[in-house]
Structures are given as C-alpha cells and as structure tokens.
Amino acid sequence: MDIKTLHLVLFSLTSLSVFSQSNEKYANVKVSYGLNIHFDKNNEIYKIYEEFSPGLVSRIEAIDSEFDFSLVFNDSTSLFYLEKKLYSDNRAVNSAIIQSGYYGRIMQQNNQYIEENLQEDFGKFLVSRSYQKWELQEETKMIGDYLCFKATTFYTTTNPKGKVFKNEFTAWYTPQLPYKFGPAGYGNLPGLIMELQGKRATYGVTNIQFYKDDLQSKENEIPRLKRKKLITEIEFEKLAAEDEKRWLERNK
C-alpha cells in the first residue's frame, strides 16, 4: 500500500469515528432541562456536607435554579450539555453538579451513549456505555401538554468498604415526541424523557424548541465532543477502581 492510499484509508476511518469533527450535524429539536437537587437529611452525604461546611446544603438547593441543561438532537444523534454561564456561588455549583450525576457532555446514539468524563483525577476520556434496562409501567401523568408514561431502572454501586447501594431512577416519557433521548445519558425509551427523577436530583423539561427541517446554521448545530481517548465502560471502571485503591493506600 503506497503512502497516498494509506492516508486515504486513515482519513476514511477517522471520518467514521463517533466523534468525527468533519461531518457537521444539525439538530431538529432543542430541549431545555432544569435541575432540582434534593437531600435526605438522614443520608450520610447530608451529614458529611453539614459537618465540613455548615449551610452548604441549603446553598446547593438554592443554586440549582441557575442551571440550564440542553439536549439537542436529530433523528439519529443527540448531545446533552450544560450551558456556559456565570453563577452566584461557584462552590455550591461544583457540589450541585456532583449531586446531579453530570460528569461531562453526553452523545446519545441508537445503541449506546458516549460520555465525556472530564473530572477524573486518573484521566479524561470518552466512555462508551450501554443504555439502561427499563421496566415500563402503566402509570401516566400530564407534563405540560404531553401525556407521559412511567418507566423505572436502577444500577448498583459498591463503596470502598464493600457496601452495596441501589440507585433507582424514574423516567416520565412521552410517545407524542417519538425520540429515544433524554437527560444525563438516560434514553432508549419509546419517547422523549420529559422528567428524570433520582434520589439526589430531578431533571425536568422547561422548554422545547423545534427547528425548520432545512435549517443548517450555528443556531442548531450539534456541539462536538472533545477529542479524547474512547474507552469502554469496563475499561473506565477498572481505571476508577485502581485510582480508588491508590487513594485508600495514601490515606491509611
């Protein structure tokens, strides 16, 4: 294979990459989400916050109204991100983001979602993750003008002491907007997620904007993911476990 052919092959492979910069994508819809942080006063996390920084919890719960999250998408791809802005209390903002479960922008596709993990001490990556397995319920409620259906899911985490925690989530989705996307990497339901409820935070739709089909401008251009190494969820969890082990050894 000559050099010219090799360059052509490499270019083609790069163009097929999930975070290719050369193929501009445009959104048909932009969904705005607000955030509500909630603390259980009987929870260990609440007690830790209050012990080390009295009053921080109330500041976190007050600052959440300043957050603006956006989900922009077309028929095949979406991107979820936090809008850039100035905040009144940066320390409360950082703590609120941790509580929200948002660790970086998220691209959703038909079979997977890819998350920018930009806050980890052991490295910054794009992480390919599988969608959640949902249990569809018969319960319904109206959110604005949309009839929404209930779906539930969960995942488990284990702390350094070996204690297992169950993290449960409830989504309210509407088939009236038949898009398989939602906030914070949650999706693959038979409709747009209008509300996502977790133990620590709730995302809720505040506005939906539809773009004209032929519009291709900066206004509706889907932002690109950063150029970081793409790894699997298993690889990421292994790196996280190794980093946690190093931290425990340093703090014995």
How would you describe this structure in keywords?
252 residues; alpha+beta; outer membrane lipoprotein receptor (LolB), chain A; twelve-stranded mixed sheet; 34% strand; globular; disordered N terminus
For the record, the count of structural domains works out to: 1
Name of the CATH class: Mainly Beta
Number of strands: 12
CATH architecture: Clam
Give the count of helical stretches: 5
- In order across it, which strands form the biggest sheet? 7-8-9-10-11-1-2-3-4-5-6-12
Mean pLDDT: 85
Radius of gyration computed on alpha carbons: 20 Å
The string of secondary-structure elements, in order, is HEHHEEHEEEEEEEEEH
Helical residue percent band: 10-25%
Question: How would the global form be characterised?
Answer: globular
- Unreliably modeled segments: 1-23
Structural class: alpha+beta
CATH fold-type name: outer membrane lipoprotein receptor (LolB), chain A
Structure description:
With 252 residues, this protein is of the alpha+beta class. The protein has one domain (24-250): outer membrane lipoprotein receptor (LolB), chain A, CATH 2.50.20. It has helices at 3-15, 44-52, 56-63, 90-100, 233-250; strands spanning 29-37, 69-73, 78-82, 106-108, 113-117, 125-129, 135-143, 146-158, 164-174, 192-197, 201-210, 229-232. Helix 3 crosses helix 4 (90-100). The longest helix has 18 residues, at 233-250. The radius of gyration is 20 Å and the shape is globular. The termini are far apart. Residues 1-23 have low confidence and may be disordered.
